Amino acid sequence: MSILAAAAIVPTRNLNLLYIILDCVFLGVLVGLMVWKRRYSTVLFGLFGGILYTVVDFGGFYLLSHTRTVYIDGILQGAGGTFAVLLWMSMSYGFTNFAFIWTMVAKDKLAKYWVFLILMWWMIAPSISELGGEATITTSRTTGAYHGWMGVALVASYLVLVLFLLKREPEKAFVNVLYLCFIGVFVQFGWEFSLLVNGIRPMNEASVRTLIVNSCLETNLGMPTIYLIYRLWSRRFNEDLTRAKREEEALP
Fold it and tell me: Rounded to whole angstroms, how far apart are CA atoms 146 and 117?
């Protein structure tokens, strides 16, 4: 095996059923708290993220590129078992990722609570799930088939954003591109790091590379588009889904 092959990025997770059950409970609690505080736009965007991740993971990685595999008790799962596991995983990380991003981009005054709850859960859930016994569910995917195209998309999207910002007066820039990039990197680093240190993602010769490359690339490539969606949405709706006032309507 060559050094390059040995260091190939193949993100893998080993977990048990209790982890999935507890995570579903946490998601229900998180959504309930957000609804209680009328963070309806955040909830909708989180649900959009979960659906998007499901389409990409099951439709793209499993059905089209055949780079996703799921094993339960050592048995390779077919479409049904794979979909069930990927639906949970995609809704979990899709919702938390997108809710995390939305609340940070919107600079929600309650962002510190949402981010704390999400980060705390990512770090502690694996330890609690050890009460459920050994890991019997394994998921993995190869990334060589599409990471290059992800890199192209990231560079192109940020280049378009920077060119647009350069055309405007500095004081009229509508977003700090460094802040946007920081959110995109940090949100994925948070759960990638928690998976690694808790042993859900196995430690091997590619672990550090997987952590760094995935964190810099996978969620971050969509940040310019996500911010565009946020701006378009927030011009029409407030966080509680009431109609947003246009600037001219707000003038006395």
Answer: 32
For the segment 182-207, what is each residue's pLDDT rounded down to a tens digit? Answer: 999 999 999 999 999 999 988 888 78
pTM given for the model:
0.89
Q: Which among 95, 71, 66 has a CA at the least distance from the CA of 81?
A: 71
Residue 143 banded pLDDT, cuts 50, 70, 90: low
Count of domains for the chain: 1
| C-alpha 249, offset from chain centre | 36
Instruction: Tell whether 194 is covered by a domain.
Output: yes
Report the residue count for the chain: 252
Model confidence at 249: pLDDT above 60: no
Across the range 223-234, mean pLDDT stands at: 94
Give DSSP secondary structure letters for 199-219: TSSPPSTTHHHHHHHHHHHTT
In this structure, is residue 27 part of a structural domain?
yes
User: By the 8 A CB rule, do 175 and 166 touch?
Assistant: no
Range of the domain at 14: 10-246
Does residue 5 form part of some domain? no
Does residue 2 sit within a domain? no
